[in-house]
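## tool: complex_structure
## caller: assistant
## args:
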Amino acid sequence: MKKWTALLIISLIIISILTAGCQKTHGLNPKNPVTITMWHNYGGQMKITMDQMVEEFNETVGAGKGIIINVTSISSSASLQDKLIMAAKGDPGAPALPDIATAYPKTAVILADKGLLVNLDEQFTAKEITAYVPRFIEEGRLETNKLYVFPTAKSTEVIFLNKSIFDRFAKDSGAVYSDLQTFEGLAKTAALYYKWTDAQTPNVANDGKTFYHTDSLFNFTQVGCKQLGKDFIVNNKPDYSSDAYRKVWGNYYEQAVQGYYAIYDGYASDLAKTGDIVCSTGSTAGVAFFDPQVTYADNTSEPAELMILPYPVFEGGNKIAVQRGSGMLVTKSNEAKEYAAGIFLKWFTNPVNNLRFVASTGYLPVTEEAYGKIMSDEIEKSQDVNIKKLLTTAVEMQDHYDYYIPPLFDGIDILQKDYEKRLKQVSLNSYKSYKSLINVKDRDAALAESTKGVLQAFIK
Amino acid sequence: MLHLLNQPREFSKHLLNRGKHILRRIYNFPYSDILAAEEVRYLLRKSIDTCMTMRLKLFLLLIVLVVTMLLGMILIFTVTGTLTAGVRGTQKEVELELTNISQEITDQYGLVSAHAVEFSKNLGASMEKKLTAQGLTSSELKSHPEVLEDLVAGEYERSLFTLQRSNCSGVFIILDATVNASLPNSQQSKAGLYLKNMEPNILNSSSSYIFLLRGFSGIGRQNSVTLHSQWKMEFDVSDSPYYSLPIKASANKEIPLSRLYYWTPALKMAGTTEEVMLCSVPLIDSRGNVFGVCGLEVSEMLFKLSHMPDNSTYKRLFCIFAPSSNNSLSVSQALFAGGYYVREFKEKERYLTIKNNSPFNSYQQADGALFSGLHKEINIYPEGSAFANEKWIAALLIPDEDIASSITKANLKMTLLFLILLVIGISISYYLSKRYISPFARSIEIIKSNNFSDVSKTNIAEIDDLMEYLSANNAESSEESKKDGYTEEKLSAEVYEEFAKNTKKLSPAERAVFNLYVEGYTAKQIAEILCLSINTIKTHNKRIYMKLNVSSREELLVYVNMLKESGREFE
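## result:
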């Protein structure tokens, strides 16, 4: 009997040792690596940096622990979000969900509702979490306070200005950079630019060029209202009743109707490439998409020096900018893959690697440590003049701005698309009306007639 | 009697006496034979006391049997190749996977080639028709840049349709013309259109995945197509085989359009960061004038997603599709798919030399082996093609260390299996030896206790027979002992008395020899002591044996020792 008891105890000890070993590695084995599929939106020039980092991970930490990161999609953030939703809903022809994907919280909400996401609190200790900028972590906490979107690289919005064209324009017109500190000044400068460009072709009347485009009208509206002390989204619905909203609406709509602001369903960097705009507001991560030269319709081109300025503020408003940037989510699979994904996220966001990525992409770091001295050093070291300007502006904004995290609820994505589509459509209609009226009436009268009752119809 | 059980030597003597008595009574054995048998049994018993038990001996024999069988198995496995079957098994898997992937690549590239040729035919005809409507010919395009944007814009829908139906990642048109011939380097700048599908693996891809990489920005804006981050208005065709080679090949008017398409090796177009393979076909009008090229693209991502191998043994197995010449693969011009991250390797290594081996071929760089795997030639050009001499190979490769690791793993498994079998064999041997010996042990216990009333059947014929016999004999012996007044002491005394009595029959010379034997001397020593020849001693021996009724010196000594141990002295 004693013999059997001893045998049982020894067996239990062996099993517990083996199990403890398995728990420690969570099923990872360098000799039998797990493959983690990844979708990300770091395309174009950012792809080179991302490729290098993924490769480095695979050759170092990945090889040591038995993890292979396999990138299976590189797309724009918008199409990536569409694809994630398609995959989550099991649409015909949609690919299988990846193990890791870059995603906005608004997309993650849809996946989380279907129970497809891993709570990343389980992959990070509380101490590890405290190393990250708290507001970035908070943005990734969705339902029931679970961390579904891990901050990997964040962004805010800034002004991108074609300095080469602006300087030429400023020299002739007296426009000044300081006007771009406010949306009112921006509107004034845009009007000035239209007149200046219109004057370039004296034989053709009213062919001035647009000055400004915002990448996200929804963010512009939300942040504008917030700067003026009001929330645009109240109880998960847009609030059109405030004076703040009317001011924001007017700033965009009236300039768009007169051709000062672009009405365009795409990124400002597109229009900047062809010299169709000079100034834009958009994500810091957009810096890589600005071409160093402008190409005109006759295929001639000129260098385009980029200037990066802090986000404009409505007069009398508070310095507030939106907090943007997708994080990374991890989909449910098995223990080994989920654990491996956690290891990659830790590696990718450690201060040194994070800043390496940031320094070549235009994103902002996510750890407190990276935001401190390391970032100042990185600014000094950066070879990319645009990134240097961007990080300098980001640090300045970090010191003087508050950040607005857009509300998150089911349907926000549809609300955003609908709002932007409708606003652009009414602006385009009024623009066409204005363009036809301006030939027979003076500008003010044409503007008044073309915009009459539009706001009331819009907010009904 | 019981006290003897605690004294093995005494007990042995007791058994010998009993045995001798029984044998003599039943079989009427000569006394000397009985004595010899007793001696052997005594010695055997003595050896049991000092050496291994029967059970241990049986156990060891069974272990030897188990080990022999395992070694035999290993030998058979080695001879039949079973030990290396794991690697050969995976070779079969890889071979099957290669067959499938090769077929998929052949199908994909065949389909894309056919669509590219059809696109060229339709596009050439359509453009020629539009130019004719404007009173122009294709050769006049260069001198009429003002028609370019409309001409290309008019083909946007056709291009998009071709892109979507062929499941490609890009479609392009490059016209031999530029919008501004006055610009420097305008000879290398060509107008056209390049649409990229960023999500070619999604079947119902919407236009939001389509980007304008090259072409008039107005075309993009008119069709709500975003300009690619690396957009440029025109193509830079300097050092662009996708432009120059098909046009050059089309100089041979005897080659039909279907044999003029050209697949570039993997390359990055000027001003882009993604590697692509382009299927490029010349644009030829009805008069045979070549006025550009058009075609389709397979991007590195599309290739990766389409041809990713899936192997449970080799997680880092990857597919490479590369141009081949002189038994080597051009790695820097290849597309890859799979779990192994090869970018850095690709940048460093221009070629891999193929060495045919078994079960896997070896793919080496200059300073040694790198990968193992299998390959297959892929025909991407038909017979009579202008580029038929270009060879392409699809290979499935595995880093060498993974093969080594796989073999180690398989061997470890086999070793573990043999160890488990050995442990099982030892356990079974232990159990069987115990089980086999237990009836003997029980019987011995019964014999020891002399209690034959408890004898039960062991179902082993020999033991049951012996026990039955001993039981019966014991009963008879007991009765006889009682009846004849025999006791062990009396029996012993009788034997000793007889021996002692016989010693008195010895002559003085024989007695002298006998006494020296009693003192432990050998025959040779006795000869020396008594100053006699060894032959004389032998003669004395014969007579001593005869008078004492023993057959050998050893038997003589057994008696002497027994008498000594019983404390008797020879007179």
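## assistant note: Residues 1 and 198 of chain A are 103 Å apart (CA to CA). Chain A touches chain B through 49 residues (CB under 8 Å). Handing back to user.
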